[in-house]
Amino acid sequence: MVHGYPDGTFHADATINRAEFVKIITRAMTSPSDTPSQCGRSNELYLPFSDVHQADWFAFRVCLAAALSIVSGYPDGTFRPAASINFVEAAKIIVNAADIASDAGHTVPSEPWYKDFVVDLEVRNAIPIAITRFDQPITRGEMAEMMYRLLEKRTDRPSQSYESLTQANAQQNSELDVVYAGETGRQSSYGYWDASIIRRYPDGRQEVVVESVKAALPAVRDPENLTISRYAMISSSLLIVQTSLRETDNSAGDLYKFDASTRSFSKMKLNEIYDGFYGGEAMSPDSSMIAWAPNDESKGAQKLYLLDLRNDSYRTLVTLPANETIVTGFALASQTEVSWTDSTHIRYSVYQTGTYDLKGYRTVSIQ
Stretch 303-317: mean pLDDT, rounded? Predict the structure, then answer.
């Protein structure tokens, strides 16, 4: 049904882009006899999208999917092959490829375009419970699970529904935030530097989730001005927070995961490598990953790391030779540039070691 990588791994937790997804779906759910004439290997391929070209490795699969009305692309005429595919986009493609689309159509014009496709999967128990948002980027494992349930007609496994996802998305539109005691006028026994974690709802309501961070997390009680700041929100129940010294410009600090469903903190494994101390840092567009180049020579100033906040892991993206570095100088005098050009590519500066002359900029893919 699906293939792994040459090293024998499958990377079940990795997200998948639209080109990869269409390749896998068309291989699993179409046969050679389905191939229309405009996608014949000897002809110029039918490619109705401005960003898909004849020489692209995925061109034949996109041609096949477009000719068979499995995909239709975006209103601006693009296909966006490198973009991560989210659940509702995947649902539409799978339903079309499996030819299980409902004949009912939308009964209410104001309903979302994806409702029927989600319901078509729901009635076949084909939505893994790991899917919790309509716009959630799906992983290779989730893709394989949906395909398995449909192709093997496995209806005995727990499944999400359109209604359960709608309710979950309403909850996920709320945001967790950190508010300092001095801002609320409710100073705790730990003083001004204590903080609360609250949930903000779109209608303006607020709910106190943790009254005192320092009571819940003894590790930040001393020194007195060590406290917590919001770093990133991964979901409506998962907040990443960072310890910091409030009276300094020191950005160093440990990262903690806060799980709102259990109201508990846990120190992240990312702290093995990450300290945020004046290094080059950039958050991904969806706030789930950090591109980070350390200033500290002991951690490798010639390296660019990818830190994944979702599964608390990291890996090295770039290792430069000894005569090049990404971060120059030290502390406030350091120079670097690290930025995301899109959801899968990172741009970083390269300097000459010793002289710190800028040599230029390079781009690396996270895939």
Answer: 92
Structure tokens at 178: 């950190």
Per DSSP, helices labelled H in 99-227 are 115-122, 140-151, 162-172, 181-184, 213-216
The residue among 170, 186, 211 that closes a domain is 170
Is the pTM above the cut of 0.70? no
Whole domain around residue 216: which residue ranges?
173-267
- Enumerate the β-bridge partners of residue 232: 240
CA distance 39 to 186: 68
Residue 240 identity = I
Number of domains into which the chain is organized: 3
254 within some domain: yes
Those residues whose C-beta lies under 8 Å from the C-beta of residue 302, and which sit 6 or more positions away, are 319, 320, 321, 322, 324, 325, 326, 353
CA 292 distance to own-chain centroid: 16
6 in a structural domain: no
Q: Which two tokens stand for residue 173?
A: 């539109």
Whether 305 maps to a domain, the answer reads: yes
204-208-212-213 Cα dihedral, nearest 10 degrees: -70
Whether residues 132 and 250 share a domain: the answer is no
Whether residue 177 sits in one domain with residue 163: no
Tell me, yes or no, whether 54 and 126 share the same domain.
yes
Tokens of 202: 């779109």
Listed residue (83, 68, 78) closest to 48, CA to CA? 78
Non-local (6+) Cβ contacts of 33 within 8 A are: none
Each residue of 330-352: pLDDT tens digit? 444 456 678 888 888 998 888 88
